[in-house]
Amino acid sequence: MTYTLLSLGHGYSAQALARRALQHGWRVIGTTRSAEKAATFAAEGIEPLIWPGTSLAPALETATHILASIAPGSDGDPLLNAHADEIAAARPQWVGYLSTTGVYGDHAGAWVDEDTPLTPSTIRGKQRVMAEAQWQALGLPLHIFRLAGIYGPGRGPFAKVRNRTARRIVKPGQVFSRIHVEDIAATLEASMLRPNPGRIYNVCDDDPAPPEAVIAHAAHLLGMPEPPAEDWDTAEMTPMARSFYAESKRVRNDRIKAELGLRLRYPSYREGLAALLAAGDFTDDEV
Questions:
Q1: What distance in Å separates the CA atoms of residue 126 and residue 4, rounded to the nearest whole number?
Q2: pLDDT 10s digit of each residue in the chain, 287 long?
Q3: Which structural domain, as residue segments, surrounds residue 181?
Q4: From CA 21, how far away is CA 13, in angstroms rounded?
Q5: What class of enzyme is it (predicted)?
Q6: CA 61, CA 50: separation in Å to the nearest integer?
Q7: Per the domain annotation, does 6 fall within a domain?
Q8: Measured CA distances, 98 to 50, 51, 95, 129 (Å)
């Protein structure tokens, strides 16, 4: 049987999964708004589909697996707002929705798991809660994946550390959970092999850590001095950057290990950053 993955909003995490699917001989269809990205997808062996602007019906008819990762807006998931009936009528074997651990809100550094009540404090977190509910209402074999902060190739701190523009913002008690993109792809692949419709999974590594610790470790790996500490209360930051510090929590990942048999390739940022450095990945997005 030929499997077809329809990736709705074919972004960074979905592309990591697509690479695995293509290696196994799958057909992969990916949506994008950009003609330039569509050309890149085609060069990688992915069938591009411009959306909005092109009918989703043929792709929905043939998709055995659907992955949705389009960011919601103030009125929820834009894809479902336009095509809920069509998508609900599809008959895939597996559907995955990429959400965020931001749906849990702030827990002052305490641990949360998949059964923790959803109390988001940010606009983005509230929009994700709305979108999760929209997908759950469709009656499809849905699996929700709540992703922690994503890093990986093209998303590491080394360039900013090397050019001395990295910032080590310190807010006492602040911790974030993270996940390497290849471990996201491995989790999705494991779920496809062991589908459990209705299940929700936190996707994060084993080591929630303060953001300044990651920057300090990157500097150590490069043999450079740590960037000077800046107090969060007085640091100049954009509203977007400051919003990332509005919530602090440690996210449990026991379920992906127990139910999906996942063994993280990068159980902490230490292994992840070492791999990026070994690959010569000197990009400029902080983790």
A1: 32
A2: 789 999 999 999 999 999 999 999 999 999 999 999 999 999 999 999 999 999 999 999 999 999 999 999 999 999 999 999 999 999 999 999 999 999 999 999 999 999 999 999 999 999 999 999 999 999 999 999 999 999 999 898 898 898 888 899 999 999 999 999 999 999 999 999 999 999 999 999 999 999 999 999 999 999 999 999 999 899 998 988 888 898 999 999 999 999 999 999 999 999 999 999 999 876 555 44
A3: 71-278
A4: 13
A5: oxidoreductase
A6: 17
A7: no
A8: 20, 18, 10, 12
Task: Write the CATH number for 149.
Answer: 3.40.50.720
141-to-86, 122, 157, 192 alpha-carbon distances in Å? 15, 28, 37, 11
How many distinct structural domains can be found in the chain? 1
Decide if 234 is inside a domain.
Answer: yes
| Per-residue pLDDT tens over the stretch 18-46 | 999 999 999 999 999 999 999 999 999 99
pTM of the model as a whole: 0.95
- Distance between CA atoms of residues 128 and 54, nearest Å: 25
Residue 138 placed within a domain: yes
Residue 5 covered by a domain? no
